[in-house]
Every structure is written in C-alpha cells, then in structure tokens.
User: What shape does this take?
Amino acid sequence: MKRLILVGGGHSHVEVLRRLALSPLRDARVVLVSSERQTVYSGMLPGYIAGHYSFSDCHIELEPLCAAAGVELRTAGACHIDAVARSVHLDDGATLAYDVLSLNIGSTPDTTSIAGALEHGVPVKPLSRFVRAWNAIEAGAARERSVIAVVGAGAGGVELVLAVQHRLARVGRPGSVFHLLTDAATILPDHAFAVRRKLERVLRQRGIHIHSSSRVTALDGARLHRAAGAPLAVTHVLITTGARGAHWLGRTGLKTDARGFVAVNAALQSLSHVEIFAAGDIASIEGYALPKSGVYAVREGPLLADNLRRALAGRPLVRYRPQANALALISTGDRSAVMSWRRFALEGRWVWRWKDRIDRRFIAKYRIAERPA
Assistant: This one.
C-alpha cells in the first residue's frame, strides 16, 4: 500500500482532504501531520479581529474533515525530512515513511532585519499563534491604554490595523493610539493609485498614523526604533512584513529559493525531489513571482489534490497556471470594504457583504459530516 503524507493543515491541504472525503483513496494510507487541530482561514482573520466573527465562524476543524476523508491525523509538527530514506521526522519523536509527500506549512516571519522582533513583536504568521496573542492583547486593552504599531502596509497590514482600531474603539480603554509603518514610499505598493487613495482616506479618518519610508530596525519592549525618526513608544507591535520558509527545510537537501521556500515546477512538484510536492506560501513556483497570499493557496488546492493522486498512480501530472490578476477585497474594520481589481477600485458596505458571502461559502465547504464506516 502506498503512503501519502500531508504536512501542514493549510488552505491547499484542506481542499485535498475535502476531495478525499468525496472520493477516497482505496489503495493508499494517508496521514495529515499538523501541530494544530484547527486551521484559521486567513480571509476571515480581519473580521475576527474586528469582532464581526466568532472563532468558530472562521476556522476549519481538521479532525472531522480527516475522519470523513479516511485520513489519519497526527497532532505534531514536522522538524526534518530525510529525502534519501523518504521519511518525515516529527517533533514528538516519531518518524513516518512516505512514497509521496506534500508540504502546505505556510511561511514563517523573516524578522532578521528587526532586532528584538521575536522577543517583543507579534508576527501575524503562523495564524493560530497570532490568534492566541491577539486574544491576550484584546483582554489587556480593557485594562490599559494601548499604543499599537503595525509593521507592514500591504493589504494584510492595512486590514489588520483597521480591524484592531475598530475593535479596540469598542472594548479598549479610551485614548488608544495606532501606527502603520512601511519602508515603502506608500501603503499598498502592489495596488492601483485609486485603491491607495481610498484606503489612505479611511486610515486618516480613523486617526491612524501612517509612517511611509519608515524602516523599523529594532524593538526593545517599550519602544520601536526606526532608521530615521524618533523612536515610538508602543505597547504592542504586530508584524505583517517579511516571510521565509521554515528554517528546518534548509537541512533537508530540497531545492529552495533565496528565502527558503521550496522550489517547485508548475505541477507543484519539487525541482529536486519528484516525490515531494508543495503548495501555498511554502511553495516558490518556477517562472512565477506570486505574492504570499491565501488566494493562491486556495486556487492551488484542486490541482494539488489531482496531482497527488496522479503521482501515487504513476500518471502524468497537470500544470498549474496562476491567474494574472487576483481580485482583492480589503476590509476596513467596520462592515465595509474596498475592491481592488487591476486599475479599478470600488468601496462600500456592499463590497463587505460580497466578501462575507465568499468567505462563509468557503468555510462551509469544509464542514463535512464524518463518513460512515
């Protein structure tokens, strides 16, 4: 019997599990290795922070999904791959042999340029760890005035600071202060001018201080230091910028790119080890420079599921063709959002309702009842 090991419970692997529940593999043993029993859906994280969703609204339970798919769930983290012996080493001391291996473990924060970032900052990824940290920040905000800095002003950073401001305006102590910092000349550098203009207006209306061309160099607990400008007094620093592959991947012999992401071809197959696949943030697809976004992890899921079956059966693989332009629906803390599509921007509560329907529909797909024995 062939052995398929899925490492990580990310957006691509939950789609693999869903398809296995609909059409089980009869001639293979499948194991999901995940340090968490739940997967937080990144698209709903800002809504959770803002208070629009409960935790149950925006996460996927892996245990019932695995049960429906006939997949064994191992609650542990991977810490090494022996590509020669074709085995995965887990942090609980176990070793699992594989014929085909798939990685969907997301990215880890690259905080090497910010001294004290791991000790005094809160990286947004991994999402499960961030959710626990946010719950503590929210509880503390009811007792003391907060000064929160968000480092990184891409779509994730903008959504996060607006969500945090919206929530703490309702549950926090009066007088909280919010900063958004980026080393770029503008917020949202990958989006059109019309999108930037709309969101800059919203940020200023909410009293959020925007610091452009402001590279963060160090955190010391009570202050945030920049390459230029006076230090900022802060109570919490949330970090959305910079990502790299897990450090342990560098010891496996897998080919990776300059930031430690697994180098794969258009079939999501490792360039150095044909029996290994990777999808989502952890994958660096040859010939494409894709942003680390959940949109692409979701789109890769169906093709990954198909190619894992093909690899187990020894059949030719299918190539992935990423979309040239991805629609972005950027929430603004309240129940409103901005649509970003190429050069176009639209905003309003209807955009948030559109995003809400998309997100709830996505989550609902993975609430599959356990398959009868």
Observations:
- The longest strand covers residues 28-34.
- The first helix runs from residue 11 to 22.
- The mean pLDDT is 94.
- The radius of gyration is 21 Å.
